[in-house]
Every structure is written in C-alpha cells, then in structure tokens.
Amino acid sequence: MENKHLLILDSSPHGRLTDSTKKIMYTVTLSLIPALAVAYWFFGWSVIRTVVLTSIFTVGIEWLIAKVFDDKIDAFDGSALLTGVLLAMNLPSNSPWWMLFIGALVAVVLGKQVFGGLGQNIFNPALVARVFLLISFPVAMTSWPKPGALSDAVTGATPLGMLKTEGIGAIAKMDVMNLAMGNMGGSLGEISALALLLGGIYLFIKKYITWEIPVLFIGTVFVMTGIFWLADPAKFANPAFHLFTGGLILGALYMATDMVTSPLSFKGKLIFGFGCGFFTVIIRLFGSYPEGVSFAILLMNAVVPLLDRYFPDKKFGVVKNG
Amino acid sequence: MKLLDKTKKAFFSENPVTALLLGLCPTLAVTSSAENGIGMGLSTTFVLIGSNVVISLLKNIIPSKVRIPAFIVVIATFVTIVDMGLQATMYDLHKTLGLFIPLIVVNCIILGRAEAFASKNSVMDSFWDGLLMGLSFTFTLFILGAIREVLGSGAILGYKFIADTTPTILLFVLAPGAFITLGFMLVGMNKISKALQGGK
User: Would you call A109 an interface residue with chain B, using a CB distance cutoff of 8 Å?
Assistant: First the structure.
C-alpha cells in the first residue's frame, strides 16, 4: 500500500478495487470453515490439532524467512496461513507433528520462497507439500482415520483406495449421498463435497474464483468416468462415485483456482480445467496411485506459462484488422 | 602456490558440476548414497587422468578434423578398463552403478577437459588437471550422495544411525530428491565461490 500516492503510468481504463491480497487470502481461509466443521464432526479434535499446528508451522517458517532474508515478505498477509490450512486439509487428521512440520517447510520453502515468494511460484505450495509427503511417507499418508472412530488408531482405506486394491466389489454398497456428506476415510478436508461446495459458491459470489476451471475440471472427470462406466459397469465405478470421493471437489475449487498458479485468460482456463480432469481420470483409472487430483493439478500448473502465452488476454478496445 | 590456486578453482569457481553443470546425468542418477557417489567419482577420476595424459601425449599427431572421434576412442578405452576392473574387484558397486559406468564415455566433463585442456597443454599439467577435476567431481558427488543418504535412508556410508522403524524422507533417494538437493547445493557453492573471490 506504500505506492498509493504514486502516479499510475498505465493506459486507461483504470479499475479500482478495495480488495487486497490480505483480504482475499483471509476470505478464502474463512470459506473453508464449513468443510473444517464437517471434518471436526467426523474426526474430532485431531482435526483442530492438525489445522492449528500446520498453520503455525507455515506462518512461523515464513516469518523466519522474512526475518533472515528479506524483510519485504509479510508473513501475516494470509497467504502462509491459507497454505497451512489447505495443506492440513490435504493430510490425514492423524498425521504426526513432524510430518506436518516437514510439509510446512516444503510448502513455504520449496513451494513458494525459492521461486521468489508470493506470486512467483509455479506450483501450488500446499500441493507440492502434499505430493512431497505422499512420496516420502507412503505409509503414514495412506493410513486414514475412520470417520466417527473414537481412537486415531482405527485406520482404513479411502473409497478410492479400496477401489484400486479390492476392485469394484468393495464399493458396491457405498451410498452416494453418504459419500457426498463426507462419511468416509480420507484427508481431513476433502471428505465433505457439499460443505466444500458451500464455501466454493461463496467465493464465486465474491468473484474470487471464476467458474471455468472448477466446472471444466469436475465436468471432465464426470464425463470421462461416465464413458468408461457405460462401456463396462462391471469394471469401472460410476461417475457419481468419482465425483464425491477423493480430493476432486477440494482440488477443483481451492487448489486449481489458485490465482497465482492458474491461467489468466478464458481459453487458457478452459484448457487448464480440462487437463486437470483428464489427468485425474487417467491416474485414477489406470495409474498406480488411487488418487490423481494433486498430480493432475501440479502437471497442469507446469504448463500455465505456456497457456498464458498461447492465449493472451484480449487487449481492451483492440479491433482486429479486417 | 599455483597448485593451491588451481585446487581452489577446480573445487569451487570451476567445479564441473556446481559451476559448469556438466555431467549431470551420473550426478543425479547414481548419488542415492555417499558410497555410490564416491565410486562413480573415483571411476570418472581414473578415466579423466588416463584420457588427459594420453590425449596430451597424442595432441600433436591427432589431426584436428577427427579429434573428437579420436578423443572418444581414447576415453572409451579407459572406461572399458574401469568397467572390467570394477567388475573383477568390486562386483556389488559395479552392479549398483550399472549402465552408468559405460556411460562415462559420454560424460561431458571428460570430453570437455580433453578438448579444452589436455589437447593444448603439457602432459604433466594435464595429469594434474585430470586429478583435480576428478577429485572435485568426486567431492561434489560425495556431498550430494551423503545429503541424500542421510535424509533419505537415515544412514551415512551404509552405516544406519537411526532405528529401522523411524520413517525417513524417501523422496530424497528418488529422482526428485536429487534435483532438489542439487539445487540447494548450487546455492551454497555459489555463495562459497563468491566469498572466495571476494577474499582475494
């Protein structure tokens, strides 16, 4: 806000927004509360512990980096907090504290600050950390607490994990409505599709996210899994199952729409959303991992500069020469 | 004094890996442990010394038009010696390094030193150049391998210092770990090189 009084040397028209990075970051964080509330309902106090610890770690590490390297970094601008909360939502609620710490370190240092800080990162920091932890600690990252279980020691697989290891029979009795509410094993923030949608709609009304990426992302997954399901229902799960399990809704609404790591233009966003959905389905159906949302988004993050280049924003008032 | 200067140069400001980014293929692929790093580094050092000396000896009779094929033949000869020697003496290491031993032939560091140094300098200088460059390559691979081994398997030179049940950061023994570690090593080495230059 220091340059408020400087002359703006840019061609008109000028739009003025009251939004600041800080305000957007905190609003997005607040919009996650319904999903966190559902997670608390199913998994209990461990949810609060995981979210609070991870946020303290990410903000703390960012604050330390600001102290040591560059005092221009504002550790409390909300971006570190949002990264922390999103990272926590991508982890099992029973993750040990050192795993949260390593995750926070990777998210802030490798995911963000090595690229030059907020706005410069190529990949979504929370997802970088999640994939780092998934590859590094495969056992801890796939021992999901069972919803409603009183002890953290009771663990089970996610519906997608069961589908991968035990085949279509394991998920035959699962009720889609139950899955949509979030009554299943999984990362603490990904379970309740409906609560996430609620937060997503709020962000859409506030115009912090646009419809292209989530709609194309989720739509592609729905259509592609639908085609496979129609072709061979005995082998592939139905599209509703794919919609409400795993991190699809969380990824499509909160990860893929990250302002820094998604394309700017309309066409770029369409291709970005389609690519995310496409790779998610390919990995879910044919890959060795049960869930592919995080890999798909990271893959598409990598091509965002390319998309921005091929589909630049239309310049205001420019007329094509006939 | 000249030697000290050359050593400093070879290890820091002209380090083949961290300053010139040459030979990245073996650097990234075989450094999952410190032992592998040393093995690969010393094999390369041997080839580097051998090829530097022979090429320096032959520099006046190799026609410049066919010098690259000629260099490659010399280098390949030494690589074959290393390959067979390792197979006979250190079979386990040979198995771990696998294909990367024959691939030393195409290591840019060796061809680079042959072209840039050995073909223009005396035999003695070429020998020292090969030795220093090789040792600095070994040193870099050892550090890289050691960091990855400590973080990825909780061990150093095969000696495990934590309990078997303690989880380690598996990513560091996989390919992404090599890239991440190398990236941070570049930062550190650039800092050291700058400090050394500033101190002069």
Answer: no
Nearest CA in chain B to A139: B167
- Say whether A149 sits in a helix, a strand or coil: coil
Nearest to A132 among B167, B168, B171 (CB): B171
* A12 is a domain residue: no
Interval B147-179: pLDDT, tens: 888 888 877 777 777 777 777 888 888 888 888
Residue type at A78 in one-letter notation = G
Q: What is the pLDDT of residues A240-249, one digit of tens each?
A: 888 888 788 8
CA distance B172 to B160: 16
CATH assignment of the domain containing A281 = 1.10.3430
Q: Is B167 on the interface with A (CB under 8 A)?
A: yes
* Residue A47 belongs to a domain: yes
**Chain A contact for B62 (CB, 8 A cutoff):** no
Q: Three-state DSSP class for A207?
A: coil
Distance from CA of B101 to the nearest CA of A (A): 29
* Domain coverage including residue A87: 21-154+166-309
Question: How far is CA A104 from each of CA A20, A127, A174, A273, B185, rounded to the nearest angstrom?
Answer: 24, 11, 34, 27, 21
Residue A193 lies in a domain: yes
- For B24, the token pair is 């990245």
**Distance, CA of A155 to CA of A178 (rounded, Å):** 19
Q: Which of A119, A84, A132, A90 is nearest to A304 (CA)?
A: A119
What's the average model confidence in pLDDT over B128-139?
88
Chain A residues near residue B176 by CB distance under 8 angstroms? 135
- Which amino acid, residue B130? G
Helix axes A79-89, A125-136, angle to 10 degrees: 40
* pLDDT tens by residue, A70-103: 767 777 888 889 889 999 888 888 888 888 999 9
**B180 CB within 8 Å of a chain A CB:** yes
Prediction ipTM score: 0.78
Domain count, chain A: 1
Q: Name which of A110, A114, A135 is nearest B170 (Cβ-Cβ).
A: A135
Task: Give the number of other CB atoms < 10 A from CB of residue A244.
Answer: 23
Residues of chain B positioned with their CB less than 8 A from the CB of A102: 169
For residue B115, the distance in angstroms to the closest alpha carbon of chain A comes to 36
Task: Quote the CA–CA distance of A31 and A299 in Å, as a whole number.
Answer: 26
For the whole model, what pTM was predicted? Answer: 0.83
Q: Which of B169, B174, B176 sits opposite A102 (nearest CB)?
A: B169
Confidence of residue A65 (pLDDT cuts 50, 70, 90): confident
Q: Establish if A102 touches chain B: CB-CB under 8 angstroms.
A: yes
How far is it between the farthest Cα atoms of chain B?
Answer: 61
As given in the structure block, the two tokens for residue B13 are 């400001």
β partners of residue B160: B155
* Interface contact flag, B171 A110, Cβ < 8 Å: no
